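Entry 14. Ran structure prediction on the chain below.
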Amino acid sequence: MANIEFVWWWNFLFLPLPILMYFLLPPVQTSSPVYMPYLPLSPAGSSAWNSMAKGLVAMIWITLITAVARPVWYGDPVTTQPKHRDMMLVVDLSYSMSQEDMQLNGSFIDRLAAVKQVLTDFISQRQGDRLGLVLFADHAYLQTPLTLDRHTISQQLNQTVLRLIGDKTAIGEGIGLATKTFVDGDAPQRIMILLSDGTNTAGVLDPIEAAKIAQKYKVTIYTVGIGAGEMMVKEFFMSRKVNTAKDLDEKSLKEIASITGGQYFRARDSQELSEIYNTINKLEPISQTTQTWRPQQDWFAVPLAIALAGFFILMIIRRNHV
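Output, structure tokens:
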């Protein structure tokens, strides 16, 4: 009942109107009664029925006034953001993402595990944005269309496994497919975050050409190159220096970002990767504009139905006991 409000509450001022009319209006002049001593007396229960009829009349009047006052039930407030942002996460799923060169808390984990960990936290912060997920290897694959359901995006990301769609790296197709998801949207901002650890080795679309198409549709691309680079690797009785990021095409990733007005970042460990996504969060802040509304439902039909039911009962009483 706490959520029910009367829109036209001032109609309750008419509730005492029948009482005022009873006391203020002059009584109806009636002729003197004629007493006939031989007629049967009124039934003993007639006064009880008259009292019930008066109670029904009072109830009908109260419920009619209540209906006219327009009772409305309001639900809990719902807050929405009128202008959302579309953001596609484009993740490299080539087999090179199995390289265990991302340092985390003193130990090394594979690149895909580091990406899952950091991106899950990033996704949780994007309230109000529509997010989508594209995976690419031999070909690009739309894992999750644009949605406001951040939990689903995180769940789909964490369920990905290597060699799901091949071993190679189709960067161009990943950009192209992500751009295609923006075409029919009406979001004022279109953001793409592309993460890769290699060079374009598959697909039918060149990454630079794909970036130009994205720029045509006003898509901003932030590119992230992943890989530790030079690190010492122990082998039997000796250690040697290797470059784990030798296949990373930083030149193309920088050009892709430049064409679309974005930025290029380099992640050599999990900490740097986390800082990159924090930076992107600041570059593309979440919109603070919100709209709050409460679902409502008119309930005037309830007291009106009670009044009609009382009216029919009153008619039956008047017919049978008058």
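The chain is about 40% helix and 25% strand. Will compare against last week's run tomorrow.
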